[in-house]
Amino acid sequence: MISSIEIKGFKSIRNQIVPLKQLNVLIGGNGVGKSNFISVFSLVRNLYEGSLQNYVIKKGGSNSFLYGGNKITNEIFIKFIFSNQIDEVINSFFVTLESGANKLFIKKLSTGFKGLNGHWHEKDFEQNIEESAFSKIKESQAYYVNNLLKEFEVYHFHDTSDNSPMKRFSSINDNRFLKKDGSNLAAFLYYLKLKHPKHFLRIERTICSIAPFFDKFILEPNRLNPENIQLEWLEKGNYESFFNANNLSDGTLRFICLTTLLLQPTPPKIIIIDEPELGLHPLAINILSELFKKKSQEGIQVIISTQSITLLNNFEPEDTIVADRKENSTIFNRLNKNELEAWTEQYSMGELWEKNIIGGQPF
């Protein structure tokens, strides 16, 4: 589990240490920096996979990552502190990125291990390079930290356009894990249907609970090209016609992706999602919130960013991190249950947010 993250010089975040728990719900007004916080994980993930420069170029170059631009900032520092299942801080991963030639170079990449005496033992692994090969290092502290870094992914199921990867055919063998954009959704569900039927049925039943027209999936290899598969389903009362992902509403398609992610037999140990409520009916948001809570109770760390009052109403103050802007910089505040006890006796979390009692509003 990530127990805290330190961020310096990244986008709207000048200098913040954000404590994290098993369940983390990030709220705030438009443009305060919620998505910037989520994109820290995307940056580190791309660095870890050896695709840092492609990611930087795709996102507008190095200047778009620096706090205040390169006239104010020329370095980014990110540090993850990891703890084990009994909340003992044991490992760290930290990297300094330096701007130059519209790129972000890895100035220094290091790890740390907390010994039995409470002292940190740090080790530098890479310096002054464009791309990291840290994921390939299997010795010393890197062995343990690698196992932690590969366990988180940032999921974006936002693209439900006509050209969405979720709506196209995918390779039937592309089923090792659900991809972050849902592009192999059909192949992954087909794998669950064959190898984990109980989990597959649970996914179908959960979808039925918010989509009364949905009966079940029809998942089979394409008859003309058995190497490919497409998401198909049956409508209740209309069993002579097959429908595909193009016949699903945007919200229903996103809900299918989210349900599959959360109810698969071996979900990632750290799940990060930006605005999972997009296009969802309040009932679907409530069901999704219960799934988030259940996963966190099962040992999965959940980090979500939201603008949904309905979603926030399902969580407690101690689950909530409020993002605000102060002096042109994003600040994060984890709420304290005891400090809000008098308020929560009368109001829901969503009402406290609306009334600006807990911050996170544009006024």
Automatic annotation (TrEMBL):
One GO biological process this protein is involved in is: DNA synthesis involved in DNA repair
CDD domains for this protein:
ABC_ATPase
Q: Name one Pfam family in it.
A: AAA_21
| GO MF, any single term | ATP binding
Q: Where is the ATPase AAA-type core domain?
A: 23-313
What the entry lists under Gene3D superfamilies is as follows: P-loop containing nucleotide triphosphate hydrolases (3.40.50.300)
Annotated PANTHER family = ATP-DEPENDENT ENDONUCLEASE, OLD FAMILY-RELATED, DNA REPLICATION AND REPAIR PROTEIN RECF
Protein's name according to its UniProt entry: AAA family ATPase
